[in-house]
Predict the structure.
Amino acid sequence: MEYQLKKLVTHYRKSLQIKPENLVVYEKIAELYYEQGELDKTLEFCQEALQIQPDLASVPKVLNKMLQTLGFEGEEITAFQNLLQSKLDYESFDILLSRSQTVKTPTDVKTWKDAIVLGYDFKEKKQWDEAITAYMKAIEIEPSLSFSYFTLNYIINYCFTPELNQLERIIAFYYQLIQRRLTSPYAYVVLGDMLTKQGKVSEAIIAYKVAINKTIHLNQNITNKYINSPKIDDVSFLIIGMGKAGTFSLYYYLCQHPQIIPATDKELHFFNKNFDLGVDWYLAHFPPLPVEGGFLTGEATPWYLGSDEVEKKVFQLFPKIKLIAILRNPVDRAISHYYMNLKLMKEHRTLEVAMTSELETLKEIIDLTQVSEKYWQTEKGYLWFGLYFYFLEKWMAIFPREQFLILRSEDLYNQTNKTMKQVYDFLEITDYSLSAHPKVNSGSYSKTNNKLRQKIDDFFHPYNQKLEDYLGMKFNWK
């Protein structure tokens, strides 16, 4: 029965390549994934359908069945549908649940939803050990969804540094899950990250490779071609920047293409933070590429572009790699960067104080290519990372111009299909029509004071002109 279901999914997914907006097919695929118990995939196809036609009646029926299976009721179901229509944001899922119910203590936890609500509350209070315990409980109760895995990994990788006994507890927990065979492939990624933190690089490599292998076998578009083909270890492309300019959306769109096989994670931070772990650790995050079939793989760490010496390390390992930089109006990028740090509680100043401080500091630096440690003691780089000209000049001193594709963030959102065709042409893969263009990992915040915005714009004006002259392309940022 399972084999027949997989054949049907493969058949329907092929038909989407011919007619990507066929909503009936999305309904059928979502139903089939639901029958297979692959709830993440069910959500994915429901969401894509809702992006195309938000009032579609048939797909929410599949969604309703799945949510009812997971214990959702009444208004929660409606709220979740609205969430899927808006954007892909795992934290929004936690917020949705926390608004719909209250869980006060661990003894109140009866369902996986209770555990997530409690975990979110602990996370907001920075009670990290308690938050980790709550999300582990959510995974234990309902291991088929990835929400809890992503949040748990985020807490451990970005919010605090766990102690050795905490790492050992989490690793033991994941090994127990794996033995029960009740886990998402992403669990192996989290396990690999934990083992890496312990310094067990060889064991981490094994975990990442298992994650890749399991993910490959869930992808019906490529399985048959992939299994029987000889393979090589290689990385085809890097999205090198810039942060808060749309790299998440670009990578998400690109990974919808049937010739792109994703890495274990979008951002691997190998060349700017983890280079000492070795190239074998890095390559373990990617699927070995079949010699035939035109498959590609890559990652998107947006801070590569502005990080010291990264370009030399990339050239050392992958001198022929294709490089993509997506650049956003640096004023908008700086403001978005500020609000991201504010949300992560890495910033406590007002927007005006933070921007004014950095403007004054940068004015005192004669050579902007040489920013001292003193600068980073007070500033967060909101304006610094918008000086695209200096970063691209360093990269292009090593890599030839033809290995770069430079995109405008504004074009990605306003002319998505046209922009993605540029990407496909650059990577030399077939054209592919996206069925939906959700903004991924996008933020929202209040409008900036016009006077402050003009001051930041005046600062960037000469650097934007340098960028246009250097690249021979217009950005028209106002």
Summary: The two ends are 58 Å apart (CA to CA). The first helix runs from residue 2 to 18. The chain has three domains: 1-86, 102-218, 233-471.
